[in-house]
Each structure stands twice: as C-alpha cells, then as structure tokens.
Amino acid sequence: TWSDRWRSRSLQAALLLTPGCCMPPPECSPDGHTVLQNLNRSTAFSSSGLQDLICDHSLTAGWYRFQLHGRPARMPTQCVPVNHCGTQAPVWLSVGEGDFLPGPLGVQQLTACAAWRIAPSGSRDCCMFRIPVTVRNCGGFYVYLLRPTQACMGYCAEGRSRPAEKEPPPRPSVPVISSEASGHTVLLRCSFEVHSNRSMGFVVTWSRLSPEGRKEELKQETTVHTSAVIELDGFNLRLGDKIFCSSSSFFLESADIRGSAVESAEFFAGIRLKPAVTVLSEDAGLHQLLVETSVPVPCPEGSFSSTQSCTLPLEISTNSQGEEVLGPDLSLSSCVLVLSQTPCTDGLCGSGLTHFSAITDFVKDDNRTTQISIKPIISQNFLWNGYSPEPVQVLVRDVPSAYCYAFTDPHMITFDGRYYENYQIGTFVLYKSSFWPLEVHVRQWECGSLVHAASCICGVVARDGGDAVALDMCNGVMGETQPQLRVKSRDPSRNSIRISESYQGRKVTMTFPSGAFVRADVSGWGMSLTLRAPGSDRTHTEGLCGTFDGDPDNDFHSAGGATLENLQAFISEWRLPPGSSLFDLLPSPRSSAEVHRRCICQQTASFCSRHANVRFSGVIPALDVTAKHERRNETQQLRPGRLAQRSQSKGSPFRNSRKRVPASTQRRGGRTRRRVPNSPRQHQRHSSTYFFPEDHEPAAQPETAPAWPTPSGLTQQRAEAQCRHAVTESDPASSCRRLLGEQTLRRAVAMCVSDLQLKDDKSWLRATIPLLENECERRLAEEAGHQEEHQEAADALRCPDRCSGNGQCSETGCVCFPGFGTFDCSAPSGRRRNSTDCRRAERLL
C-alpha cells in the first residue's frame, strides 16, 4: 500500500543518513557513471530546424546521470512532444499504474518510451518504441542504466521543479542581426545577451516585412544559446528583404513562465544607395554616392571566399523626370561602380564610392527628380544573380543663369540688365568669376565714327585656369584684318575649354566646365559678344558685366566691391595697364578647377566626357573644333563673317573712314585719332604678343552727345524708320517675335539708331541682328519642352534668310541647290553641283 511504501522509503533514508551504516552502490560513486549534460537534452529545447541532432543509437550501454547547467536533472516521467530534447524522437520514462521511482539507494526496473508521429499531419504516439531502463536513487540524484536506442532517438532530461516564481525571467538585450558566409551560403545570426545565475532558455522568432508593410513570421525556435541563425536562401528570405528577430527568455526549470520578447532593429539584407544629398542645384557641385552592402560580396565563381578580397561590378543608370523631352538632369563620375568585399562589421560587408552632379542645362525645366538605380546584377551566386537594389531619388533645383551683352560700339547690358555705353578704347576686364578660375578680357579700338569718339571690340581672351582661348583681330587694320583663333595652354592635354563655330566662322563660341560661355559674332569692324554666367556664379562676378546679384543699381562697382556713381570712373576701374592682360601673357600657373570626367548613364546608352555636366541645347548648327585646337595648339585663321563679306564686297566703309582723316586730327572729347599703318601692326614672329597703341591712350572724357541731323543729313525720324525696317522685318525678328517680345526688339532698334547717329553709316543697320539670333536661341533652349510651338523660330536659326531661296532647310542647316554655297546659300559656288554633291553635303551637315 501507499503507507507501506512511505514507511519503507523513510527507513531507507534514515539508514542512508546514519554514519557508517550502509555503503552506496558503486554506480553512485563519481567513477561509477557518466554524466550527460548536453543542454539540448532539455525538454524545453525545440529541435525544429536543428541540423546536429542527438542520436543515442551509438550510446555505450552503462550507468548515466543527467545534469543541466551544472544542476541535477532526471528523465521526465510525462510524454515529451516530438522534435524536442535535441532529437526527433524524444525518450521519456514511463511510470505507469503501480510503478514508482525508487527511494534512496533503491533500484527499480522501468520502461522508457520514445514519442513519434507517423506522418507530419498524423497523431502523436507517445510510446511508439519501448526501451527497458534501470533506475538507481543515489540520494541526491538518479542514475540510469541505459542502452543504445533502436534508431535516431535521444534520452530526455528535465530540471527539478521550483516553487512558482514571483519575478519573471530577465529580459535579453536588444538582439542584433548580422550576416556571415559559409561556402556558397549566407546565414543571418540573431545575437543577444542576458545576465542571470540560473539556467535559462530562449525563444527566438524570425520575421520579415511584407510589401504591404505587415510583419510575416518565418520561423520560431527554442534554444539555450544566446544566438540563433537562419539561412538567406533566396526563396524564403531574399536580398532586399527587411528582417527582424525577437528573443524572449525563460528558466529551464519553469519553461512555462516566459518573459516579454525584445525585438531587434530592422536589418536590410542587400545593397543600399546613400547619396550625400537628396536635393541639389545646377551649380556644378560634386557629391558622393556611397553604395554599401550588408551581405557578403560573392567572388566571380559564386562562393564567399575568406582568403581573398572579391569585388562585384555594378552598372548604374539614371532616369530623370521628363527625360524624353528635356534630357537627363544628372551626371555620374562613372557608370560602373566596383563593390569591394570587406569583413562584415557593424552591418557592413562591402562598399563602393562614386560621385554625381546636376547637369547645367540652361533650360527652364523647374525642379525635376532623377532616379539613380543599379541594373540587375549578373553573378554565379544564386542569391545575388538577378538582384536589383532599391533605387534612390534626388531632386535637382533649377538655377537661372544670366547673360551679358557687348554689341557694336559697344552697347553694354550687364548680367542684371543695366544698360550703358562704353566708348573708351584699351583693354578691359569684362567678366571675372571669384567662384571659378574664369576671366574674360576684351580689347576695344576706334571704329566707324569720323567725328565722335567711338569704339568696338576687336578681340577677346577667355581664361579657364591655366588655359586660354583668344579670338583676336586687334593686331591689324579694321576692315582688312581677319580674326585669329589661338589656344594658349600650359598643358594642352588638360584643356577644358570647348570651342565651336557656326555660320562658317561668323559665330565662335567658347564653353567652359562651369557652363559659362563666350560667343563672338564676328564682322569686318570687330565683334559683338554674348556672355553667359551659370547660376553658380551668382554674387561671384565682377568687371564691366556687373555683379550678377539681381540688383542692377550696384553694377557700377570698384575692384573692392564699392558702388560707383560715375560711369566713366566705373569703366576706367576695369581698364588694364599695358602688358598686363591675357592678350600679352600666358595664363598663370594658377590651377584650373579640377575637371572631372562626367558620364551620362542611361538605361539604353551611356557616354563619358569632360563636358557631360553641361548641356547647351543649341539650335544654330555648330561644328565642334575643340579637338583640332587641342591637337595643334596654334593660331587658326577664320574666314570673316557674312556681314564683313558683304561690306567688303561693296568697298569697306570702315577702312575708308579711317583713311579719310589725317593722323593728327583731334576728335571732340580730346582723344587723338590713332595712326593707321598700311600693314598689320608689328608683332614678334611665332608670338601672340603685339603692340596695341590704344592701351597707351588716356581714358576718354565725357563729350557732348551727338546731335541730329548727322553730318550726312540723316534725321532721327529717318534713322528710326530705317532701323525699324532693318531690324523688325529681319528673318530672326519676324520668326522669333513671340519669343523675343517687343521690348527686346525696341532695344535692338534703339541700338541701331544710336549706331547710325554715331557713325553716320548705313552699313551698321544690320549690326544688331546677331543679338536677336542669340536671344532667340537662348529662349528656344529655355523652352525646350515646347519646341513644336516655335518650329518657325528654330528653322530661321538653322537656315538664315530661308537659305536665301537657294536651298532647302534641314535639321542640320541649309542644303544648297547646285551652284550655291556658304551657310545660307547666298554665294555662287563657282561650279555647277550635281545631285551627288547635294547628297554629300547633306551627309556632312
């Protein structure tokens, strides 16, 4: 009976505690048994997903004792669920009706059962297999006589139960997810810490964020370790997933009491693009684009080597809003980035670096977004192959540029729109940037007027760092000298200035890395200039073109920045002493702004150049002659423009007007008319320097304004009528009227009237037409998204004077009929041309 068994156990315990009474059996001594202390044998440990299972089929028969965390444990006496105790079929001790565990020093023959489930969806059989077990009570612990199991089964252990805990188990630290490689496999490890003197277990749960933003549980496992792993297999978990893990703890002796779970921060598995800025301006600034991976980089053969540093090439592309019409808005330093492998530390397993900048396009396209993306990766590794990292977006803010004009005698219009006249002669600083190593000097000589002091620009030099380009006709006689294009560079291979010609040399344009440009409209008397300052130069300009800060009232300024009230004092402030200009000196060794190689990286096509960060949407057909000058780096002679050709063909009024006045004649205003030699001025052979007498003339003093009528009898009303007819009825004016506006046309007419009054010569009637051409092209470029509305204006610029009726207009300019040539088909070619000639000309255009 139960009372008899109780009295028997009490007697055995009393005898055991009596000194010298009884000797313990040999299996109870430390040398008489083997201790099994694998923590995975705990009934609280789940074996799901465990690769290294406990299999006691190879266990040596003998006496065994169980321990967990150094504390006594024993075989459980209740059914243990399948996939626990570190095995698939857990073995537990069956104590049925009439059976009992032995008392102190007692021994008992019992039966152990192995739990099993026949099918995944079938019912559980708690005693599918039976194994005889002998149990000895050694007083403070049990030992078991065990034998090998029939198959892969494992004997279970459980700790002694404690009274109910008042305090919950301590919470683990916030888990941290890291990645590690093994062969061709990537594992994610969830690691955490906990501080306790008691034996503890943990429940680790893995989840990921669905595309809808919900957390999906992937796996849950029980472990006695402070970390757990899951495979990034490309099926259940893929690159690009946002992954979480959480951990909760429990005491092994009271597994049913679990603490609250602690979740990790989000772990993004894959590549992330990290631009230094997400909002930038069209200011040519260069910004970093960092590419990082949180997963090991595979080697070319697909493995993850630990002995060599592997790299992975990534193809980068951009896609700008409205790109089909407006073009790309972003350039990169390279279209291919190499991702280099590094040891995984703090969530970083590799990185690469490139740079990006906004394209200065001079189009009024408002603010546009550009997406930077990486094309699908090609790799031998299954996990990486076909992976497309998540793109990023940046916003490019449109920055307006500014224009300065110096036309005919010259009429000056500053960057901020202030108008004034400059009749002085000599060499001047027209435009100097304090943001870029950019400077433009001009030379002005006397021209056109027999009575009044008048001047025209005869040469321009533009410098960018150590490179300079000069377009100069000041070393000869007006009306006879042809302009010469000269590149002066300390290192021609690094020249960053781009040179193009239009209308067979009548227009010469020099473009700089900043987006600034200088355009010269060449004629027999000299040249008119159009300058563009990029938005990055705002508040950073000085010289005769003004300050570019939106305030025309402070355009008259000194070199120190002080505002000047007197016009002549302002002009004299920027006049250069003889021999000190860029006309006389090779550019100083002051280094240029570093010209980075920029790339346009689109999905379908890519290209790289030193000028890819600047896009001028020109309409006037242009020939890029940069390579020719970079290669030869010597003087190139240009043909005179159309205006010069026409005026000279009728007998140059400029040349005649200069010869009609004796050299000693004094003009009003006190300026001596300089002597005009019969041949070009003396200059050193193979040298760009020459004596420019205007530099040695004193500054002109204000004189009485010209009066009507002119010496030839031209009245103001007649001059205005002639100018309105010549200007407003010209092809650029009539075709571009909507773009130009009436104010621009009125200003061009006023310039024309001023020229007629000052020079008293009708050959100046069309001198302001290039201003209308340049303004029309600028406004067409700014309205790039509405080209179809201004097709007539575009045709007028591509094909001046509608090809003079002697040709057909194409996208690339005039295609002349047989017997005619030049850019506007206005001149006979000197021989008959057949259809083959026309087709060849069209291909060349």
From TrEMBL:
- All copies of the VWFD domain together span 402-582
Composition bias, kind Polar residues: at what positions?
645-655
**Residue ranges with Basic residues bias:** 668-686
Q: Give one GO term, molecular function aspect.
A: signaling receptor binding
Signal peptide (UniProt feature, chain positions): 1-22
Q: Which UniProt keywords apply?
A: Disulfide bond, Signal
Q: Which Gene3D superfamilies does the record match to this protein? A: Galactose-binding domain-like
Q: What is this protein called?
A: von Willebrand factor D and EGF domains
Source organism of this protein record: Oryzias melastigma
